[in-house]
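Section 5.1 Outputs to date
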Amino acid sequence: MIEKESSGPSGDTLDVCITFEWIGYDDDGNVSVHQYRADGGEWVDHGTKTSYTWCGYKEGDHTSRLGPKTTKDSLLNR
């Protein structure tokens, strides 16, 4: 799995919703599904979409992870 690019906010934000976008691909060209997770939660399948908008988060520190799940990548190491 190779995550080529990603974008989204870093640092403090006053936005009600934030959007993350990414480009991912696999060496064999077969990305089976894109996934994301927030604050260390479970990975969520996101189909072939390469952006995610997160709304309704509470004030405070948060982390998000996102990218492609490929035929060879279980995302367990991310």
